[in-house]
Amino acid sequence: MSRIGKKPVELPSGVSASVSGQTIEVKGPKGTRSFTATDDVTLGIDGNVVTVTPRGSSKRARQQWGMSRTMVANLVTGVTTGFKKELEITGVGYRANAQGNVLKLNLGYSHDVDFAVPAGVTVTTPKQTEITVEGIDQQEVGEVAAKIREWRSPEPYKGKGIRYKGEFIFRKDGKKK
Question: Which InterPro entries match (predicted)?
Fold first, then answer.
């Protein structure tokens, strides 16, 4: 039994949802998002509560049950509060600057890196060494943050690079004499 799938998803005030077949569409103050569930689960709306129930007792149906409930909960969270990832830049001379929908990164290469920010995601730089990625789609926000981090992932010897805020980098000792 899925413990996650059993919990209903409550719709806060200002959020509306509609189900047509296997597709649920959620509208909120930040925008509109939709999700198409597989045929293994049934989506239902009772007032301001969305429920997900499996259509059988097969392993696949139970897997899709919990996953579909989580996807619906992420839709609701996305259109109400949105998702946010924060990155920190560590290193001498490493800095970032957001200009419109382009993020300019100075990461020690012979050239500046111009990262084009996709639509639906906003990237801001409160400081030169901090990057904030925000949006209503959790997967898209995480993917953009991972692509930015990929340009200079943190290394274990000096700790230089781009890392998530609060991420611990296991440090190694240098060469011993």
Answer: Ribosomal_uL6-like, Ribosomal_uL6-like_a/b-dom_sf, Ribosomal_uL6_a/b-dom, Ribosomal_uL6_bac-type, Ribosomal_uL6_CS
Which residues lie closer than 8 Å to 72 by C-beta, 6 or more apart? 9, 24, 26, 35, 43, 50, 52
The chain-wide mean pLDDT, for the chain, equals 92
59-75 residue pLDDT tens: 999 889 999 999 999 99
Structure tokens at 94: 């490493």
Q: What is the DSSP letter of 130?
A: E
- Residue-level pLDDT at 5: 86
**Side-chain-facing half-sphere of 54: CA atoms under 13 Å:** 18
- SS3 of residue 165 by DSSP: coil
Instruction: Give me the amino acid identity at 96.
Output: A
Whole-prediction pTM value?
A: 0.86
